[in-house]
Design goal:
Layout lengths: L3 H20 L3 E6 L11 E5 L7 H9 L17 E6 L1 E8 L10 H8 L1
Parallel strand pairs: 2-4
Antiparallel strand pairs: 1-3, 3-4
């Protein structure tokens, strides 16, 4: 016999399955060296911000269950552009931001990344 709880649990499981399938289809969209060159601000975005070498790219890879979607490195400061990843369509995106703090990049590159 089906109970309301069983129905809700089944709907929740189906939602989780569909959501997981969708996020696993995430694809690289584009990189932008400055904010002016980013795609138009529309739809939904989840941005990953934090210190250099904090695991932002690794978190995107774990979330999407893809090993090298967002390039990660043991060396701090490797993400030097704003990287966009589309989740099914261009209106839903993950954004991998350059880390702040330590970055082994030339001063001129740091200035360009900041503005």
């Amino acid at each position: 016999m089906s109970t309301p709880f069983n129905d809700v649990a089944a709907e929740h499981a189906l939602f989780n399955t569909k959501s997981r399938q969708k996020i696993q289809q995430t694809e690289f969209m584009m990189s932008a060296p400055t904010f002016r060159l980013c795609p138009p601000d529309m739809g939904l975005e989840v941005a990953f911000a934090g210190r250099s070498n904090a695991g932002k790219s690794s978190a995107i890879n774990a979330l999407t269950n893809q090993r090298q979607l967002a390039r990660s490195s043991k060396t701090p400061g490797r993400t030097q552009m704003i990287n966009f990843f589309s989740i099914g369509d261009t209106d839903r995106r993950l954004v991998d931001l350059p880390g702040y703090g330590y970055a082994a990049v030339p001063l001129e590159m740091k200035k360009r990344m900041a503005g």
